[in-house]
Amino acid sequence: MARKLQGAVLRDRPPTNAQEAMASLIDAQAMKGRLIRDRIDSVTFDGLAPPLIEFMRAFRAEMERYKIPMVFHEGWRSVGRQHDLLAQGVTKAKGGESPHQYGLAVDYIHAARGWKLTPLEWAQIGAIGHEVARKRKVPMEWGGDWKFYDPAHWQIKGWRNWQSVMDIHGFGEHHRPTIDEWPKIIARAAPTLLGRTMFAPQAKP
């Protein structure tokens, strides 16, 4: 049923309900292709906060389960790139004022369709991500819930607390925290996460 719905939705009209939206996102065949498979597997955790990595791994597992080819697009972002995106009007954050400059945010897009999903389709992705965050007990915010709509974006909730701690200790674009330094940051920025967040090496899942 999902496969038939998927073809009809993509060819003839956008989805009109949650069931159709989910069906339109599924692309089990595409996930087997080498190009998309390589994109799905191409993830860099370099410098990202362990709670965010935990969310990313669980989010990816759910996308695999649903056969939705969502791919990692961007994690850590330079100040220069942030300025460029601001000039393009795709963000409101200046360089140095985004969680991406602190390893506290990540963007995911659809491997086959990029950002070109309908709000209803993005809502299904958002619902899955929220449930992942709830189950893993990682406080996350989704850009699809904002007035400035940014549905590819996920960030650690309360990230400015983390920013203030990291600024004090000189962490940022030119000094990304190591896996051994993150627990000290978390202890000051979000101590409730200590003891139940995985501090595994930053390797691919």
Give the arrangement of secondary structure elements:
Blueprint: H1 2-12, H2 18-25, H3 28-32, H4 34-41, H5 50-66, E1 70-74, H6 79-88, E2 105-110, H7 119-136, E3 140-142, E4 153-156, H8 159-168, H9 182-189
Antiparallel strand pairs: 1-2, 2-4, 3-4
Helix pairs in contact: 1-2, 2-7, 5-7, 8-9
Can you put this structure into words, describing what you see?
This protein has helices at 2-12, 18-25, 28-32, 34-41, 50-66, 79-88, 119-136, 159-168, 182-189, and strands spanning 70-74, 105-110, 140-142, 153-156. With 205 residues, it is α+β, with helices and mostly antiparallel strands. A 4-stranded antiparallel beta sheet has the order 1-2-4-3. Mean pLDDT is 89; it is low at 1-9 and 200-205. The chain is built from 9 helices and 4 strands. It has one domain: Muramoyl-pentapeptide Carboxypeptidase, domain 2 (2-Layer Sandwich). The chain is 46% helix and 9% strand.
